[in-house]
From TrEMBL:
GO molecular function annotation: pyridoxal phosphate binding; transaminase activity
InterPro entries linked: Aminotransferase_I/II_large, Class-I_PLP-dep_aminotransf, PyrdxlP-dep_Trfase, PyrdxlP-dep_Trfase_major, PyrdxlP-dep_Trfase_small
Protein's name according to its UniProt entry: PLP-dependent aminotransferase family protein
Keyword Transferase included in the entry's annotation: yes
Pfam family, one: Aminotran_1_2
Subunit structure: Homodimer.
Length: 410
């Protein structure tokens, strides 16, 4: 196990003078805290003996019914018996990996891919083979080629890990045609798909992408979370899996945490039952759309020639590629000195690639802070370009600056 580059940034990025475009913290300021506080008060008063007690290893039955309702907008029709509630979708990812992976097994994953997934895969000693993406998501031809190459090398492929909707970190979405093609490729090759979908309801054009799981209940394990559409502090997620896999998930969950926290589950369940949660999601979408627009406008206005970036239609992130010869990880200490933070692209690859790229998050800062952060970042990039033009790559690498941020920096 190794420290996440995202986690290592938190101590530095949380300083008030630093504009953090790094972390993917949802903006929960729009939550009706009076409503949440009231339902929590009622929950303890009326159902405290249940909410504060141990519960089922699979999760509260009523919450599992609500989760089936939450999945309907993405096209999924499911039975509550096939849902396993987890401590965030991160635990669901950990449990799935624990069930399927032996050391040396291959996991196919998009390039770039979610840093939390890569850390989990690494901890179980999986071999990650990246598959190329473009502005329309995972490239099916590259997926077919990767499967053939891994099989030719005699290695077992356990599953494909994908975030098809509003990708973290790339900010792109897989088209409907590609989703169908990817599903068919995996069917033919008998490769399981792990579909991670924390952002699926957070699109900006009003259309909810259809989940891959909606078209195949046996080939796909679907992971979901309330962290982006309600509150991350409650740590409630889920896995929707075929029956045989679900049984193993419950056993693995019981071995890990005995049961997911009943209090968090019942809080989410009461919220879904007694509040217009879809209207709340709509409010979140409008907030994130405004901030996405602020970031794209600032990038268009301020970034130097040679830089390019994705234009997300939902979710939290923009993926920016720097001009030729600029290393995002080497530049990070100088950026922090200039009071702006981002996540270098190397965090999102298992093979060391991504040095020219970075993930920028627009979900948490205000539009004004986003514009200021992009302004500071553009200045740092221009300084790096000038330094490289004057001294070459060695001079840029030797430029003095802060040490790389570490978790214990204050």
């Amino acid at each position: 196990m190794t420290a996440s580059e995202v986690r290592s940034l938190f101590a530095v990025a949380s300083r008030p003078e630093v504009v953090s475009l790094a972390g993917g913290m949802p903006n929960i300021s729009g939550l009706p805290l009076d409503v949440v506080g009231s339902l929590v008060n009622d929950l303890v008063a009326k159902r405290g003996m249940t909410a504060l007690q141990y519960g089922s290893g699979q999760g509260d039955p009523t919450l599992r019914e609500h989760i089936c309702d939450v999945m309907r907008p993405v096209g999924i029709v499911a039975h509550p018996d096939d849902v396993t509630v987890t401590v965030g979708s991160q635990q669901a990812l950990d449990l799935v990996t624990r069930i399927f992976i032996d050391p040396g097994d291959v996991i196919l994953a998009e390039a770039p891919s979610y840093v939390g997934a890569l850390g989990t895969f690494r901890s179980y000693q999986a071999s990650v083979v990246h598959v190329e993406m473009d502005d329309h998501g995972l490239v099916p031809e590259r997926l077919s080629a990767a499967i053939e190459a891994v099989r030719a090398a005699g290695k077992p492929i356990k599953f494909l890990y994908t975030i098809p909707s509003y990708h973290n970190p790339a900010g792109v979405s897989m088209t409907a045609a590609r989703r169908a093609e990817v599903l068919e490729i995996c069917r033919r090759a008998d490769v399981l798909i792990i579909e991670d979908d924390p952002y699926g309801l957070l699109g900006f054009d009003g259309e909810v992408p259809r989940a891959i799981r909606a078209d195949d209940a046996e080939q796909v394990i679907y992971l979901g979370s309330f962290s982006k559409t309600f509150a991350p502090g409650l740590r409630v997620g889920w896995a929707l899996a075929p029956h045989a896999v679900r049984e193993k998930l419950v056993l693995a969950a019981e071995n890990s945490v005995l049961c997911p926290p009943a209090f968090s589950q019942l809080t989410v369940s009461e919220y879904l039952a007694n509040h217009d949660w879809m209207a709340q999601v709509k409010d979140f979408r409008e907030t994130y759309r405004e901030r996405r627009d602020a970031m794209l406008e600032a990038l268009d206005d301020l970034m130097p020639a040679g830089a390019h970036w994705t234009r997300p239609t939902g979710g939290f992130y923009v993926w920016l590629t720097l001009p030729e010869g600029i290393d995002a990880k080497a530049m990070l200490p100088r950026a922090v000195t200039s009071r702006v933070a981002y996540v270098p692209g190397t965090a999102f690859f298992a093979d060391g690639f991504g040095s020219r790229s970075m993930r920028l998050s627009y979900c948490y800062p205000t539009p004004e802070r986003i514009r200021e952060g992009v302004r500071r970042l553009a200045q740092v990039i221009e300084q790096e370009m000038e330094l490289r033009a004057t001294f070459g790559a060695w001079g840029a690498a030797q430029r003095p600056g802060l040490d790389a941020p570490a978790p214990d920096q204050s």
